[in-house]
Amino acid sequence: MAGRVAVIQFPGTNCEMETLRAVKHVGLEGDIVRWNEPEHKLRSYDGFIIPGGFAHQDRVRAGVIAAKDPVMAVLTEEAEKGKPIVGICNGCQVLTESGLIPGLEPGRVEMAMARNRMENRWGFYHRFVYIRRMPETPDCAISVSIGENDIIALPIAHSEGRFATTDEKLLKAIEERQLPCFIYTDRKGNTAVKFPDNPNGAMFNLASLSNRAGNVVGIMPHPERAIFRWNLAPIDTKTPNIHSGYNIFKSLKQYIEKVS
Known about the structure:
The chain is built from 7 helices and 12 strands. The protein has 260 residues and is of the alpha/beta class.
């Protein structure tokens, strides 16, 4: 039986349909589940995705209100059981604000998804970017089927996507424990040096970050918006090893099959 994934819909979420389509396309079962559904319904799923959008209109700051919602307490308990939780864009902001990533000190908000830092512009930014796995990084819930030399081309669409912290101990811990899942690169897979390859100024070129167990992971680019090869039409796909977002969701499927 295929694993079942709950795509969590907060007020203001706007990527739930694309995310559910991607879940089903790789052979998983899934449902769009509202944030205020009963706990027993949520606990029946094998994994969870918090999709993109503007949960609760991103009031105060992106993701912070959703992060304090009672549903996140349920997801935290399910994560402790080993179930995967993936946050995409706004979902990544929610996971950061809830303390689930990087999660080195449970219950503490350790990082911010700060405003983009870009050359000669500010605010919301949308374009295709390239990401790849960090070399020798352990598998996380969305990287199981992705090789170290694979380049994933995905669109970004955010104004607060910069992984940031002033905690030097945390930075060292992230580096030593190999928590990044993906980093920004150029189209040849070389580590991004500056804007626009790093589209928001994220430290360590972080496009994605996981917890220590690898089952909770946030990713700022949108794999659900580039699930099919034809979604990559706006970019040059002649470079070898460029892939769509399909393998992100395929990895989630394999991870669920492994831990279920």
